[in-house]
């Protein structure tokens, strides 16, 4: 009897296992493909540098004396880019230094007058205490000392003013050494040795690409705009990449413009009447993978 019961239980267990296998197949590592995120919107875009390129303007009027860097070179803040020559600026420094020397000479002269006036007043005061001096002579000596001390104060002020003028003139001379205002790469050097430059309305001495991450500026049309939100994940593919299998770069929407505007991707193309786009800025996980100015296709994922 026990043997019969055992056989029945074994048969029942085998039947349950077979039923379970037919209704609930065992999952394997290759049974189901990974689910791709669904696209919520698509847009065209362009890699841009926030704030644009950095144009280094001439600080003073002059002539380019020498160029210390080459196009394509990386620079750090404070590195020398160019040296200018300006006779007018150097003449201003020489004049300011001469004025300082003159003021210092006057200061010494006034100090030399004050000491005898002080001694004379002391002698008249001593004689007055002994009753051997006219009070009027003592008052004259006191007045002479006041005038001498006033002259010293004026001379001191003139020296201070002359020093300030020298510092200002020296600052202008120091500006003849044009340095990089921040880290970056030299894109262009429009001014070469011998070029005459002007501080007002003149061309740039150098154009730098700042050393900070570039962003993608995507232009979303009106039909896709409601689906685009800050913080969304995106996939960025450069224009011209071969086929649908082109490697996409991951990114995230950082901010969205609060206003509508015309497209700026094709600046040479005529603006279509009534066409508006919404700009959104995208940060890439690998910002160095694309170059500034490169056009891209952007897919926004839910």
TrEMBL record:
Pfam families: BSH_RND. Residues 55-201 form the Multidrug resistance protein MdtA-like barrel-sandwich hybrid domain. Transmembrane segments: none annotated. It comes from the Bacteria. GO terms for cellular component: efflux pump complex. One of its GO terms (molecular function) is efflux transmembrane transporter activity. InterPro entries: MdtA-like_BSH (IPR058625). This is HlyD family efflux transporter periplasmic adaptor subunit. It comes from Ramlibacter humi.
